[in-house]
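Q: Got a minute? One more chain.
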Amino acid sequence: MHFTDIISISLLGLFAVALAAPLNPPTPPHDINANALAARSMAHRLAYRDLTGIAAAVSIFPQKAEGDAPYSNNEATLKSAIKMPASFSFGKKMPVILGPGTGVTGTQTFTGNFLKQLMNSTTLDPVVLDIPDDLLNDIQSNAEFYSYSINYISAVSNNANVSVITWSQGSMDMQWAMKYWPSTRPTVSDFVPVSPDLKGSTIIDFTGVVGDAFQAIAPVPQSLSQQKDDSNFVKTLNANGGDSAFVPTTAVFSSSDEVVKPQLNNPKGSGFFNDARNVGVSNTLVQEACPGQTAGGDYSHAGVLYNPVAFALAMDALSNPGPGQLSRLDLTTICGQALAAGLSTADKKATDQTIPEAAANVIKYTLSGKAIVGEPGIKSYAAKDAPRKAKIAPA
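A: Always. Here it is, folded:
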């Protein structure tokens, strides 16, 4: 590895936190197994369908509706990211798309948390996105997998509405998709971003002026440079109402997040969603939901995936109109738990491993030659929202 490669990687907080001891909540005295999930083999249940011959009932590519942005990926590539369990019911249960974060696939992200829990549901049908290059490519390209999967999964499910749960960068991907592919909005019942970084992260600035200078000459994975809090991408995404929800949104985050900073329960927080469209938004900081209690402990960036409040709010949102509400939860019970119902200490360990896995994939991607110097240009379809001096790229 060249010295400049090492510096470019060290610019990004993801690497710093991967080498540090993670902040983890207390380990529970025994495994929580509310629905006897451990008795069933995840390996068997994760057999994915071949979607090659499963066509959408309506036309969704190259455009579902007027006003949708053009795709840069071909349809076969977009469809290949959709990992549909063999048990998928095609609309008999509500489809729930699980979207990953930077450096990992959806399968890696969710096997030890939401996917395991939802596979046992009688009303919800999980579908995973394993996006090429582990979400390290241009976020504008990554977002296309969300817009396509929303419309495709609805179309093969008797036009049923879908819900979407994301982790980390997935919040940006999903928000970009809904902003520039408006056909997705009527199809989404609920959006649940976990540890979201809608406004990027200040941790990517920690090397200061010297780091910025190296970043200007050294290759960095595209999505990482775009997640800097003052990037052209973040400014474009949040401009003209992009910082407000397009559908009912339940955002959950932790003040102990070591990757996304700041995580605050106010508009200055990276994961905080505004509600200018009055679609319904709840923003929850787990430490405020359960102050001084187990579920309000030091949950890390990945740890919010197994936080009891996060899971309870997600299930509340998917079971009721509008976003999840703390007022409907049994906080007396939930706040005393360290792990969400149905999860074990083994699931916690698997989820915590997501950060070092992401760091390893980032290094692999950088050394592969796919990383670039500087931030990708803003796609021409979003030029109206871009900063004046931003580079504009073909759609």
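A: The domain at 3-375 is CATH 3.40.50.1820 (Rossmann fold).
Q: Perfect, thanks.
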